[in-house]
Specification:
The protein is of the alpha/beta class and 132 residues long. It has six helices and five strands; from the N terminus they run H-H-E-H-E-H-E-H-E-E-H.
Length: 132
């Protein structure tokens, strides 16, 4: 088995298990949007909009999880776009943001202060917002 691992690399399951996990809050109910807006007055909130069928989205999520180091400063919400497209539409309408996938929205004091999509998603870029 190790010969194949050396030749072909780790299995998908091993990669998944070794991937850094974050403490995501599942964004599954439209009522959570009001709570997100209210909570953003005490601590910034980030919504990661993810499509489970898109390789770009999977890559962006993996990179984000590996680079993100602000768990104590930002609350993280994960929105599965395939299951909760109506919530994603409501988020776009509420914050007057064009829907993208993948996409991150950083909300502070009730408004989106930063958003990025696709290859522009960079967790290290968020440092400038958490130190304000």
């Amino acid at each position: 088995m190790s010969l194949f691992k050396n030749i072909f690399g780790s299995s998908d399951e091993e990669n998944l298990n070794s991937r850094r996990k974050l403490d995501w809050v599942a964004f599954e109910h439209i009522d959570q949007l009001d709570m997100i807006i209210q909570n953003s007055w005490q601590k910034p909130v980030l919504i990661f909009k993810h499509s489970t069928r898109c390789i770009i989205s999977k890559t962006a999520l993996s990179s984000f999880e590996n680079e993100f180091h602000y768990e104590d400063k930002i609350t993280l919400y994960f929105l599965d776009l395939l299951k909760y497209r109506t919530i994603s539409n409501e988020v776009a309408e509420t914050f007057v943001i064009t829907h993208q996938s993948p996409q991150i929205l950083l909300i502070k004091n009730g408004i989106v202060i930063y958003d990025a999509s696709h290859e522009s998603i960079d967790a290290t870029f968020l440092e400038r917002f958490v130190n304000e």
